[in-house]
Design brief:
Blueprint: H1 3-7, H2 16-33, H3 39-45, H4 50-68, H5 71-78, H6 80-99, H7 104-132, H8 136-163, H9 169-188, H10 205-209, H11 213-235, H12 237-246, H13 253-282, H14 284-304, H15 309-337, H16 342-371, H17 375-393, H18 408-419
Helix pairs in contact: 2-7, 2-8, 2-9, 3-4, 4-7, 4-16, 5-6, 5-7, 6-7, 6-9, 7-8, 8-9, 8-13, 8-18, 11-15, 11-16, 11-17, 13-14, 13-15, 14-15, 14-17, 15-18, 16-17, 16-18
Protein name: MFS transporter
Keywords: Membrane, Transmembrane, Transmembrane helix
Transmembrane segments: 17-35, 55-76, 83-100, 112-134, 141-165, 171-192, 213-236, 256-275, 287-305, 311-330, 351-371, 377-395
Length: 420
């Protein structure tokens, strides 16, 4: 052990500011999958169609995506702490309002406001935790990474448990947890005086970034990939419930929460532990093609076996393993493909890919009603095939990615910013 390593502070010995941000990050990432287990319950309680309830993802993701184009501009003008606080206030307010709603259209509107708050908070949280942590950026990134993984995995589980009490439970639960995080951020977040100020960027910088051919190609790939991703995430609770009913089983919010907890845990584990060594050993483009091809097959299998409960559950969890690697590899590819500033490249890419995710739930419901329960999965598989074609056609623009990797810390930071 070197003298530097011996003196490095323990990961767990962090200022209160860091734990406040990490807790808030965990709860914020929980919000992505929180509503998944309660979609059927909301549909029944509010007499809404599957299409209407799946729009809870669309309104959230659409506003999050649009806001991502402007968050770096906002934080550059009002500062990190103010941006965090405004984001948290919006999440608390709109999560509580969603829980108090009397119809699905109200929830849709409040989920949009929730998405705006989430975009402001998450896009700024990494910079805040890096500035406040002891032990350097490596320590901060590990903590942020842990918060992301726990939030993605626990969100569906919490949604399922609170959803057994009422479909309103997960919304109110999130509001309470984020209110606690807000108080902690206000009371404990003190960024170092020598922390660098957020870079000022123009309001149009994210849109101008799409002129870069490599970033544009990867962003279009991400749109079609995320279409398949959110077909799986937003639509699957309904086939799961139908398959359980056909088998004579009761499959409510708790059971759905367990399934998507397994999915989220698989995604978190492979994004952290499998993706980095895979991309270092095989290269970025081979990993991207392999994961996209595997996801296409999995979505096709879901279409074929959508009525078989056990098979569908296994396929969902296996898909989580694939999605974790894919998310990490695609974001790393975005960061290596251009010489644009990281915050601009990541916010542009994140904004575009969230818009792809927003479209999927809006299409899946009407398509299932018109063409049968297998059809959304076939469409998702087709969308991922398009992503493969785009990646193939853009090969000459992306031949340089994966050849000169950054340090592990830089790769992790890029991936986490992109995942926001």
């Amino acid at each position: 052990m070197t003298q530097t390593e011996a003196k490095q502070p323990s990961l767990l010995k962090q200022p209160s500011s860091v734990w406040a941000i990490a807790f808030a990050c965990m709860v914020s990432f929980m919000g992505i999958g929180l509503v998944d287990p309660i979609l059927p319950a909301i549909s029944r309680a509010l007499e809404a169609t599957q299409s209407q309830t799946m729009l809870l993802f669309t309104s959230y993701l659409f506003i999050t995506g649009i806001a991502m184009f402007f968050t770096s501009w906002v934080s550059g003008r009002i500062g990190v702490k103010k941006t965090l606080i405004i984001g948290l206030v919006l999440i608390v307010a709109f999560a509580a309002l969603a829980g108090a709603s009397s119809n699905v259209n109200e929830i849709l509107g409040f989920r949009a406001g929730w998405g705006l708050g989430n975009a402001l908070f998450i896009s700024t949280a990494l910079a805040a935790i890096v500035g406040a942590a002891s032990g350097g950026s490596g320590q901060a990134i590990v903590l942020y990474e842990a918060a992301l993984g726990i939030g993605m995995a626990v969100g569906p589980l919490v949604g399922g448990v609170l959803g057994t009490l009422s479909w309103r439970g997960p919304f109110f639960g999130t509001a309470v947890l984020m209110a606690i995080a807000l108080v902690a951020i206000i009371g404990f977040l003190k960024l170092p005086k020598d922390a660098p100020a957020p870079a000022n960027v123009s309001l149009s910088s994210s849109f101008k970034a799409l002129r870069n051919p490599a970033l544009l190609a990867l962003s279009v790939t991400a749109v079609f990939y995320n279409f398949g991703f959110f077909i799986l995430l937003a639509y699957t609770p309904f086939p799961l419930e139908a398959a359980a009913k056909a088998a004579g089983l009761e499959f409510g919010a708790t059971e759905l929460g367990y399934v998507f907890f397994g999915w989220g845990l698989a995604l978190a584990l492979t994004s952290v532990f499998a993706a980095p060594p895979a991309t270092r050993k095989f290269g970025l483009r081979p990993v991207l093609f392999t994961m996209l091809g595997t996801l296409t097959v999995l979505l096709g299998l879901m279409a074929v076996f959508h009525a078989q409960l056990t098979v569908l559950i296994v396929l969902v969890i296996v898909a989580g393993l694939v999605l974790g690697v894919m998310n990490t590899a695609l974001t790393e590819a975005v960061m290596e493909a251009t010489d644009l500033p990281r915050n601009v490249a990541s916010s542009t890419y994140s904004g575009v890919r969230f818009l792809g995710g927003a479209i999927a739930p809006a299409v899946a419901g009407p398509l299932a009603a018109a063409a049968g329960p297998a059809s959304p999965y076939w469409l998702g598989a087709g969308a991922v095939l398009v992503a493969i074609v785009v990646l193939l056609l853009a090969g000459h623009k992306l031949s340089h990615i994966g050849k000169a990797h950054e340090s592990r810390e830089e790769i992790a930071e890029d991936v986490l910013v992109g995942d926001a």
